[in-house]
Fold each of these.
Amino acid sequence: MSNDEIIVGIDLGTTFSLVAYVDAAGPHIIRDENGDGRVPSVIGVTPGANGAPPQVTIGWTARAHAIENARATVYSVKRLIGKGLEDIRRDLPYLSYAVSAGPRDTVQIEIDGRRYTPEEISALILRALKERAERHLGRPVEKAVITVPAYFDDAQRQATRDAGRAAGLEVVRIVNEPTAAALAYGIGLHRPPPRARAAASPPGHTPLPIPSCPTADAGGVAAHAGQTVAVYDLGGGTFDISILRLEDGVFQVLSTAGDTHLGGDDFDRAIINLVTEEVHAQYGVSITAPATKQALRTLAEAVKIRLSEQTQAEIELDLGRDRVYRRTITRAEFEHRIAPLVEQTLTLCGQVLRDAQLTPADLEQAILVGGSTRMPLVRQRIAEFFGRPPYTALNPDEVVALGAAIQASILSGKQADMLLLDVTPLSLGIETMGGAMGKLIVRNTTIPCRATEKFTTFVDGQTAIKINVLQGERELAADCRSLGEFVLDGLPPMAAGMPKVEVEFLLDANGILNVSAKELRSGQQAGIQIIPSHGLTRAEVDRIARESIQFAQRDIDAHRRIDLRNQVEFDTHKTEQMLARVGHLLAPEERARIEQDIAALRKLAQETSDLDELHRALTAFGHGTLHLAEIGIREALVKGDKEE
Ligand code: AMP
């Protein structure tokens, strides 16, 4: 990668997304004209008139119309990406848009009879961020580092990368959000001199030899000169906790854990459920209308945020037909309802510390990331758990995007004195005889890495072996997630136990897995690429990318049509004014011709879909009215002379 190349860092959040970059002055969030770096991760779709394509709004505009356009406003899509319908069943009652099962255990969002994949919706958000960056930087942006929750599995990572590709971005690296946050935190620390190993690495290359796996867990590193920190990331939809060691510019993730279904949305739901129950008890009605559901969701979030500042807040919900639900909620009551969720995060904090063989006393800092860490109860419980107040100097909304930009800068060779060593959050393996999970790569192994294992056949003359690739921590294959299956066939018939099949797992720096298998005696091999059971095929990603480019072209066309029509309106109107003023100075035939030209051009502007034709007609109209314009100018000058 050349040193001039720009790679942006993107935090593709459940609630908000941000884009950042690094220049000589350091990392910067790219902000809108109001100074806000956040783009709400919300998409609104309105049907196009007369068969025209649907109009898509993104960000603040979509969020502002979420209530009246409830069925066609998509939010929290990050909860759906890379998932099957079964995985998100408990989210369904809270969504005001329609979700159905897609092919290969994916989910799809249905709006006005058209189906959108979560990747497509995410791609629209990513495209908006790409365009924001291009406007700001004044040049095309084609590469990005995108962050994901550390606990995202292979399917969710692949889906995120696919969304990037569909948005016209090459995703050069997927980085875990807490790791990105630690990078942003680390850059704020006093930077020690570069470490020889990292500094010697050629720019743009992964400076690591690929270690073989399973490696010994990196945990247990005693804190010497550097710092060991916990990154506690509680966002809109997900929770992540990671322990990192920061030393001499090297960021080593020691352990990580999380819950992809625990975040601010769940705290909102505590209020939603309270209101729903009380409305039902008081009025005997259930809140089912999408607009009321959306209004309640918006209200619940606002109340929750108010309770971070105040000790009580008012809730008021118009139920129609002169029924208004009203009540006051105290912070204590709200905290009582959400306490079990906060405790769940602390249980995971305990787990990562155990994985890293550390205790809270070994940590120098607990860094907070994610909007939900503004909640007083969260801060209080973290302080109690880690035995020190959390570090809050970084803006929890921006820290991940800044870290992503720093990683982008490392990858483009501009930050040769820093190195990021991430780990895989979940164990990977294959199903062995009897339905057990045979782990090849254990969780918290540093990536990139490679693991191989040999297997054989159980039946004489067996010519094919099915390999089921699994991800998860449980012992039984049925309790782990199947990432995909493939068959190594064409084996020469041999006695049971004779074939030697070597399965190789290659986990890249993005945490994305490639699996291959080879029978060593015959040399027969199956080159397979894991297409996740939950995910899009390559062809589908390409289709989305094509369509999004087509949509972009349609958007450009729509824009050009509006510009041309405005120009026609302006030019014909000006010409009419000119005719009224100096038309009597023209020959009657010329005047009549110009009047006909005005009518013809206006008609064409309304009727034609050929924008080039309209452009040509507009140019010809300009030529045809030149004489009139000259007379107009001359008359104006003469009049001016007289007035002087
Ligand atoms: P993130 O995914 O990091 O953008 O976090 C967004 C989540 O943080 C949403 O659920 C917000 O409602 C929540 N949030 C933002 N500000 C506050 C606040 N002051 N108090 C409580 N929750 C907040």
Amino acid sequence: MLPLKPFSSPLLGKRLISTWANVKQGPPDAILGVTEAFKRDKDPRKINLGVDGNGKPYVLPSVQKAEDLLYHQHGDKEYLPITGLGDFTKLAAKLAYGPSSKPLKEGRIAVTQSISGTGALRIGTAFFARHYPGAKAIYLPSPTWGNHIPIAKDAGLEVKSYSYFDKETVGLDFDGMKKDIRAAPDGSVILLHACAHNPTGVDPTHNQWKELSEIMLEKKHFPFFDMAYQGFASGDTDYDAFAVRHFVEKGHQVVLCQSFAKNMGLYSERVGAFSVVTASPEEKERVDSQLKIIVRPLYSNPPIHGARIAACILGSHDLNKQWLGEVKGMADRIISMRDALYDGLIQRNTPGEWGHVRSQIGMFSFTGLTPAQCDALAAKAHVYLTRDGRVSVAALNAGNIDYFAESVSKAVKGEL
Ligand code: IK2
């Protein structure tokens, strides 16, 4: 065998300039960049509140059991169909739409497996760019998960926004939201976080969802749901699916992006689904064929392992029951951390009103900390969070909550 030679380009030698010399340095990702900074920090007190880990990933016991079962089944590694594992997509749709969903029973929901929630959004926005009969624009809440914007733009959709968050009340700006949704041209595509809005942790109430559904029917708007946290908001997967199920019941032809990253802790397995409610099984077949046309040149077909885990859990009575208990446990733990943070801030006489830390929903809390305070927390206290003041409450625990409350209190008092 010939010895390997180090790579050398003759052109590089002659021109003394690389083909990529003009490639500009891009900025770090606003969210995942936080984890990179955290990893570089060597202080033992450091805390990463960017997404949800402190380097101690928790594998759910139900997931461990499913993996054990799968291991002993010695499943093959054949390619999956383009739209993924049929057992998984059926069960994912049942979880979201509910077992008694009419379109599900009538066989008119097209579903494809996706590379987690992000992949579902990629497929969904590409589907809209190609097939939506109205304007190629999408309205996103302000603020929204940062990645929504480049995902929609990369698909060629124009990005517009509607009011969502009221900085004064640190709650939902429902009047602003309704006003903007009413003002959008008829037939606009409106992206809605189905539950546990990221980054604010503020959701409409069930009555507010009902009102939104009516307005959107009147305006013939199209609801594009993103449900990355089913079960994480309330601890109950049915309760958290209220908005999606209500809109479907009222006759909206929704589309839905699902992620199993958080509720099953399957982050790196990249398990998700994109679905489209259609008018008939025949229409579903046509939509299905177009979803395949989008997926095939993207990644051909999805990975199998994570989908098998999710299908195993959702398809087994006992494992499903166990998993639902674990989801409730994760949601309850987050609620208890919210209470502990609130108490820690109040006990330290931290200036400001902190009720929102308790009342917000899901794994994130939009604290109201300023970018300067977030910078000081990272530089002086080794506490990392996104500069919009978003904190992953899921990353707080008995071991770091006091230090975090102390650090936030000092940052707000200007004592860091
Ligand atoms: N949609 C929303 C609203 C999300 O919050 C996420 C997950 N975000 O968490 C990681 C991060 O902040 O980057 C997703 C979709 C999709 O996540 P995934 O692709 O991991 O399923």
Amino acid sequence: MKAFNGILYGGDYNPNQWPREIWAEDMRMFKKAHINSATVNVFSWAKIQPAEDRYDFSELDDIIDMLSKENYDIVLATATGALPAWMAAKYPEVERTDYEGRRHKFGQRHNACPNSPVFQKYSKALAGELAKRYGGNPHVKCWHVSNEYGGECYCENCEKAFREWLKKKYKTLDAVNQAWNTEFWGHTLYDWDEIVLPNALGEGIGYDKTAFAGLSIDYRRFNSDGMLENFKAERDAIREYDKETPITTNLMGTYKGLDYFKWAKEMDLVSWDNYPSYNTPWSQVAMCHDLMRGLKDAPFMLMEQTPSQQNWQAYNSLKRPGQMRAQSYQTVAHGADTIQFFQLRRSAGACEKFHGAVIAHVGTENTRVFREVAQLGAELETLGNVVPGSVNEAQVGIIFDWDNYWALEYTSGPSIDLTYVKHIHEYYRYFYDKNIAVNMIPWDADFGKYSLIVAPVLYMVKEGMAQALEAFVENGGTLVLTYMSGIVGQSDNVHLGGYPGPLRKLAGIWAEEIDALAPEQFNEVEMASGETWCCGLVCDLMHLEGAESLGAYKADFYRGMPAVTKNRFGKGQVYYVGTRLEEQGLASVLDMVAADAKVESVVSGGEGLEIVCRRAKEGKLFFVMNFGDKERKLPECFYQQKDLLTGETVSEDTVLKKYDVYIFQMNA
Ligand code: GLA
Ligand code: ZN
């Protein structure tokens, strides 16, 4: 496979939206900013295929020639993220039908029906045509299929495809009826054609939920698979003409709609778009990076970020001086081998004209943002021989599972506040604060690589999951389980015989009931140490079955019942946290866990700083970043080290202000 030259630095570039005089100016300014790559053709379907029977690559040829002559690495998109108007007019089936049953008209983007035979035919043909034409160009270093796959369609083509998908999965209608528990309300299906997609006109309750979570979860799986088929069709069409160039599509972090672990298996490289808001915790951004790296357990591409501000959030604050740089290094620290922007020149019209870009509306390089981009570009150029291919390593694995994401959020009760990502993040945050490296892993990962597995809200325990976790703990691993775990199987039917179902033996507890607390309600947990922590959301009413109690509820009729437990199992141990603890309380429990599992911070000291390590061939790279408001000093282990970015030798007097970054290369 082709490789990038150093760290790819550039981003979405839409010269087709500008007169030609501007192109030369772009080339001049990109060089000044140390930009070495451009992503083109993302939304150009209407331009390169102006009619059903005609391609017109003349302008794209010119763009690619220009970039090739200037020696840019090109990320070439297949342009299928937005439909051309002629296609929607002639074939209304390419447009999606929404949850309310309305067939959409031409407009918007990321909205082709994944099961439209017309869309399938033309998108695949276009991808093949592009590969035939440009696949041999050595400057084309990466294929970017479509753009940000996502959304849902509830049209008749999708309904038919859903029935076929179900036939493949379940073989018999009896099995479908059983999986969805259709006997409830007498919704028994006697013919495959009676199956209706979960939508507002069918089983829908409010937005997105249905009366039959099993149906909704299967629809999610089906829809994720269907879009993945779209991706694969374009990928395979490209591969017919181009065997050498890696193929990706830009993902969206913890986006709910697609099972990215499944997707990543079909992608050569993972790439993603990082758009935190002004109030997104940095720990959450870090978690998304770790998840994107975890998809293939490999370095990834940052396909998009804004150099300054967004346009589509509620409050599109500017990135403060130094923030974009620090955010970029955080990205690299967590495993990115590219830094790319949306976009290189700011749009003159339509809904993204307020979206930041490398070149602002003023059109000159005399802007704060341009200067910051250029500074980062120069720095990344020097890191180009050091960083790419270096790897992140971790002793801690946190399980992230899209089936669980869907199931937890589709289930009705016990609390609407049981959202998936938030609870995963609460556990992740502890390790982030301590600078303990984490891999975000799928449930079927090789657990043997880890000393600690954390599986927050593992509500759905699918076949094989409990056994894999048991084997891990038996062999000496430490496992953390929480409330809302082990309750249902793959179709949202309860594992009968007491919560947490298949995890009961492992946890050594039985949760007889689950109380739900409203936001204004709380209980407290008194730990054996005497410390008392506030708790809420849900409270498992537990009985010990071999585990020891580490802390008990202080109030209500279940006062004195265990809230946090620890069970020895084989050579390892299982912690079960039966309620949502306040941050400090959870941290004190996880302190015990980390000590038991012998997992350590990347370096000692460094409180308030984010410190991440990537192992390169020539030693470890330590990225030290300050995202806090307080000024901080470096941990002792770095004294007298040389910062790779400035060449400066640091000492006990070195102070990191907000957004300051240091990188050290050490053989430690
Ligand atoms: C997404 C898209 C881009 C652009 C940006 C704006 O990531 O992929 O085309 O719309 O958002 O933030
Ligand atoms: Zn459809």
